[in-house]
Amino acid sequence: MKRIAANDDVPVFDRAHEAPKISSGDDSGEWSPPARRLSIPGLVVRLPGDGPTIEHRLKAQAAWITSSRYSGQAANDNQDWPLAKLLRAEGDEHHLRLAERYREMHEAAHAVTDLIGRDASEGLYTAHRTDIDASSGKLVDKGVRKVGKAARAEAHRGLRTEPSHPRPMSKPIPKPWEGDAVLIRQIDAQRELAQAQKALGPLCVAFEAAVVGNDTLEEIGRAHGAGNKTGAKGAGRALVFLGFHELEHHCHRLRIAA
Questions:
Q1: Phi first, then psi: what are they for 111, rounded to 5°?
Q2: What is the DSSP letter of 222?
Q3: Is residue 65 situated within a structural domain?
């Protein structure tokens, strides 16, 4: 069999015996090596620039959408409150997260909850048997309607009309009612807030004024008796950071108890 050169036009059935072409003969473009791919059976190889997996992104998005906590997405939550600006400027992320958690808890505890429900007897009524008197033409009440056995009522419910396989349709499956979830979260937040306020003690007024009331350190210091501007800022800062200290001890005790 005659051997054909590698750069000649090679038939399909003879290409397995020849070396691959490096160049097509024209200099229209530069040659580049083929892309390298890592293929290991049963093992997924991820490179640093790939980012999170699709499964992780879907789970994170589902957790964010179904979360009952506010994560700064509320339109009425101003993220530039004075204490937050101060903590960001100082790079104090620990106390900033603690203040945001207290702010969210306070908001959930004081949220307006609409209690929507109905009475247990609503929609229930007593059926009466009525008939028309032939002599007078008036409607005559024959008393309360009496229902037979439950099996008889169940037999007439939803029967299929197939002549070969007459059988009752499936019963409706009751779904759990979650209408009170907002109220339950509010009750839990009120309990957590009461415990945190008890741990803060006398520092609660100054701490909540900075975290919830958006007051500046100077305003807090003046409200607690400081006269000049410098002294008011120092007094307000001392009160607020003492509150952070007590709140950290409270959270630490909760973690130990859990």
A1: -70, 150
A2: H
A3: no
Q: What is the pTM of this model?
A: 0.49
Residue 75 has pLDDT above 70, yes or no: no
Q: What is the number of other CB atoms lying within 10 angstroms of the CB of residue 239?
A: 22
Domain count, the chain: 1
Residue-range definition of the domain harbouring residue 216? 79-112+181-257
Give a yes or no: residue 240 inside a domain: yes
Q: Which of 209, 202, 201, 200 is nearest to 232 (CA)?
A: 209
Least confident of 7-21, 118-132, 185-199: 7-21
Cβ atoms of residues 108 and 185 within 8 Å: yes
Contact 232, 226 (CB under 8 A): yes
Contacts of 70 (CB under 8 A, 6+ apart): 77, 104, 107, 108
**Contact by Cβ (8 Å): 139, 130:** yes
Q: Rounded CA gap, 24 and 32, in Å?
A: 13
Distance separating alpha carbons of residues 42 and 109, to the nearest angstrom: 50
C-alpha 211/C-alpha 201 separation (Å) is 15
Q: Mean pLDDT over residues 14-42, rounded?
A: 58
Give the residue ranges of DSSP H helices in 76-172: 82-90, 93-109, 150-155
Instruction: Give, to the nearest 10 degrees, the angle between helix 93-109 and helix 82-90.
Output: 160
Residue 118 within any structural domain of the chain = no
In a domain, 215, yes or no: yes
What does the pLDDT average to over 96-121?
80
